[in-house]
Amino acid sequence: MTWRIHIDWAPEQYAYRVWAMGSGPGKKVMYLSDMEFTEIDNPELHPGTMPDVRPFYIKERGFLQALVDAAWREGIKPGALQADASEIGATKRHLDDMRTIVAAKMNVPLLMKVGK
Description:
It contains two helices and three strands; from the N terminus they run E-E-E-H-H. With 116 residues, it is α+β, with helices and mostly antiparallel strands. The protein has a three-stranded antiparallel beta sheet, with helices on one face. The chain starts with a strand and ends in a 10-residue tail after the last helix.
C-alpha cells in the first residue's frame, strides 16, 4: 500500500489538518476519515502502567512512515532529534575554540571556522 499524507496548520481551528489516503493494487483506496480523542479523568499512574484506555491498531507500517514524513515536512521533529541538533552545535563551537587555541599556540593562521 502506498500512502499519501499531508499535514498543515489550520489557524482558524487552532489545530493541524491531516489528509491521509492509501492506494494499493486495484481501483480502491483507503482514507483516514477521523481520529478522535476521548477525555477521561486523570488516573493515578504507576510506573509501567496505563489507564483503562483502548489502543488502536495500525497494520500498515507505510502509513506510520508517511505520517512521520508529513509531520517532518510541516516542521514537527522528534524531541530527541532537536536535542541532538543543539548538542552538535555545541560540539562545533567547542571544536572552533580548540582550533583557535591550537593555531595560536603553533603560531599558524586559522583558515576557517567550521561552526559558523
